[in-house]
Each structure stands twice: as C-alpha cells, then as structure tokens.
Write a structure and sequence with these properties.
Elements (H helix, E strand, L loop, with lengths): L1 E5 L3 H17 L4 E6 L1 H4 L4 E5 L8 H6 L1 H17 L4 E5 L2 H13 L4 E4 L12 H7 L2 E4 L4 H6 L5 E3 L3 H5 L6 H7 L8 E5 L4 H21 L4 E6 L4 H11 L5 E5 L2 H7 L2 E5 L2 H8 L4 E5 L3 H8 L9 H6 L6 E3 L5 H12 L2 H18 L3 H14 L1
Parallel strand pairs: 1-2, 1-4, 2-3, 4-5, 5-6, 6-7, 8-9, 8-11, 9-10, 11-12, 12-13
Keywords: Glycosyltransferase, Lipid A biosynthesis, Lipid biosynthesis, Lipid metabolism, Transferase
Function: Condensation of UDP-2,3-diacylglucosamine and 2,3-diacylglucosamine-1-phosphate to form lipid A disaccharide, a precursor of lipid A, a phosphorylated glycolipid that anchors the lipopolysaccharide to the outer membrane of the cell.
Pathway: Bacterial outer membrane biogenesis; LPS lipid A biosynthesis
Length: about 375
Amino acid sequence: MRVSMVVAERSGDQLAALLLGGLKRAWPELTSDGIGGPQMQALGFASRWSCDELSVRGLVEALMRYRRITAIRRQLIDELIAQPPDLFVGVDASDFNLTVERELRQRGIPAIQLVCPSIWAWRPERVTKIRESVRHILCLYPFEPALLAEHGIEGTFVGHPVADVIPLDPDRAAARQALALDPAVQVVALLPGSRPAEIRYLIQPFLQAARCMLDQRPQLQFVLPTHELLVPAIEQALQATGMLGRVKVVMGQSHAVQAACDVALVASGTATLETALFKRPMVIAYKMQWLSWRMANGKRLLPWVGLPNILCNDSLVPEFLQEQVQPQVLADAVLRWLDDPAAVQRLQTRFTALHHELRQDMPTLASHAIEKILAA
C-alpha cells in the first residue's frame, strides 16, 4: 500500500501525521510520500518538498509565489502519474490539492480530501471543482457531510484529530512545570501563527499588546511557541518592542503552552480550535495584506472567522480583524478574561461539550472509511 499526501502548513502536518499513524495500523507495510512536514517525516514519510514551501496566507501572497507553487504542483502531478500511488490524500490546502486531485482522478488514481473546504464559510463557488476532483471527503465537523450531500459529494464525519490528542481535563500545573513557568503567576499565551506572512502582520501588535498588559500588570508571564524558521523575525520584533527577555519563546510545544496559559491571544486558524479544546479563554485577531483582506472578506458568508464561534454558532470569544488589530484593544480584551472567572467558567462548559462532539478517534474512523473507498 502506497499513499501520497500533500500538506501545506504545520497544522496540516499534524493532522496528516495522525492520519498516517492510523493508516499504518491498518496497513503495517504502508509507504508514504509527497509534500509533508517534520511530524510526518518522523513516521517515515518521504517528503519531496517541505510543506513550508507552500505555506502562504491570502490571495495576494499566493499570487506573489504563484510561479514557484505551480511549478511544484506540476512536477508533483507528473511524478504521481508516472508512478501512481494506491491513494492520494490532500490534507486541507484545497486551492493546491483540488487541482492535483482532479488530474489524478481523471487518470483513475483515487483521490480523497482530509478537511472539507469551508464552503459553509466562504467561496461556495468551489463546489463544482470539489465534485469533479475527489471521490470522498473526510470531514472534521459533524454538519459537513449533509451539506456536501446536497451538492452530490460524498463525505464522512471522522471527528477532529486534535480532539483525540488533547485531554478532556488538561493539566495546567504539569504544563507550567514543563515550560519552567511560575505556577503561581498568571500566564498569557501569544499565538501569532506559524506562517511567515502571519508573523509579518501579527507579531508586532501581539507584542505591543503584551507590552500594554505589562504596563498594567507587571507580574504577568508571556510565552510564545514557534518554529525555527520564524525565530529571526520574532527576535527582531522582541527587540523592537522592548519585550526581549519578557516573553518566553519556546520551540514547538504549542499544546503545552495552551495547557499552561490562563488566556491566549491567538491568530485565527486551527490554533483557535486547539485553544478551545484546552478550555482556555481567548482573544482572536487576524490581519493580512489589505488587498487579500478585501478580496477574502467580500466572499465571507459567516459573521465570524474563529472556529470556536463558528462551531458553537455563538459569539463566545472576541474577534478583532484587520484595522481592529490595535495593541491596547487586544490588551484590554485579554485582561477582561482574567477579571471575569464566572465568564471563563461558562466558556469552559461550552468548550467541553464541543470537545465531546469532536472526539471521535479520527485516525481509526478515517482508516475504515478509506478501506471502504478502496474496496468500492
């Protein structure tokens, strides 16, 4: 059994690694290759390119790197057609993967998608391309299969793998000990994203917000998880904002940081869902290149961008987007959570219910779904 996979960012690497673990249990001799990240490679995945090559955010940024990304995609498609895998799995990154999947499917190579393109949130016009490209979609959220069925697309709810990994009752004390944080002092997690473009637009306001918080509460601890590629930009921003030595920067360990914190300031994306599953209050912020924002915002269908608010269908946590991303505004919103334990308790109750709904043992369910697809 040979499976080819493509992920386009570090959060996709985590999802794909969990799926890969499930597939290896079903097919012990399985081999895998394509475009991945370090967690997939640790499971024996042969990565032809790093997922960081594809990591862009926003339409304008994608256009700026269009030639490089399309060249990688063309070479990948040609190689997969020359040496067909038993199955291709695109993990999120639908703008890249649907084109690959369509060409492979036209040549009889089964292609499925892990993570349903968010046609319920924006760009519903992608439905036709999805239907032409994939045999099946493994859905992370329970409402998605019925929505896909309305458009003649097969889907299976497999749960969200992060919900399987994150404990229902995270151990804050153990996480603080692991990160060498003072157990008696409140901790604010700074989660500005894992892509270079996110750091470019969010690291300064996040650190400036931390500076504002320190001015009001000098005892606060700040911790920021990242990966090696982003360290130079983060260190430069720490220096520029006067926060060098006041923010603990750790490599990886984002889950430990989320478990350790009392509240998080977090970029919109998968990290917001992870923070919700850790039952931590948060403030969501996002900012991108202005033209990308105008183009994306014009196709948005929902009043929220944060997954906790979308999945709970409620304005549970504050969101600040684009010009609203102001340091003092972010700081005030974070501190409000620290001053309202009753609101935090209510939020934790909602997030616990969400955790139970999403906890479905994704690797096993996805492997069973794939077995049925291949046998059909």
